[in-house]
Please model this.
Amino acid sequence: MTALRVGTRGSALALAQARAVAAALPAETTLVEIATEGDADHARGDKSRWTGALEQALLRGDIDLAVHSAKDVPGELAPGTEIAAAPPRADARDVLVGQQALQDVPERARVGTSALRRRAQLLAARPDLDVRELRGNVDTRLRKRAAGEVDVLVLAAAGLERLGRAEEAGGALDGEVFVPAAGQGTIAVQARSGSPACELCASVSHETTLARLEAERAVIRELSASCHTPVGVHACFVADELRIRAFVGLPDGSAWLTDEIAGPGDELARRLLSAGAAELLRDAETMVA
Model:
């Protein structure tokens, strides 16, 4: 059998994730590194900047599978493709680097993050903080903090763990407003629908993780959320019941909504919209335009 071509971005985290997927597949594999628009330019843009080149390579037949951080995958996939697998989820939470708890962060401390969602949540909880945009991959951001550009970082626990740097993590951000990005901590394996690779990679998928991811993505699609909208969605099973929690807010932390239900993601999204989420999302996009 010809080796399965597994497409991935070239960052250390992306490669670690792709290698983990490739090692679990019951077939010979080869990794294919693909540069994306997001790799070339870290300025704000739509999520497709991180996944579009991989999707196009998949559609052209240059690769058989594309491995993504699920939180980077837009709500709408390229036609003819699907998320065929999601291995067991890692810790979905955000963590501090440099402090053990948010209440321990000094007033007016410089907190670095590249995510509007994290900015909105931090300022909703601690409006005194000086939240600064800090871009680059995980290693770059850790170096920038070590160089004194910021006092504290907010990063995904899963990313630090997969890079073997879990010891850098302080306390997790917990509480009403701290809802992770949809798909955070999850690896998404995208394939051409109906292809042999699609059927094969299902063997590495974790049923509960995939169900949680699909529920979270349903909320994102219904809200038409993008990189310009501070939205968090997190699904989990309590016993056999799927529960979904969501956050929608403004980048400056001045207004936000949270809600939680036991039920499907599109129902939660409709509840948020009826409570004013559409107006918040519109205002959020205006603020970052």
The radius of gyration is 18 Å.
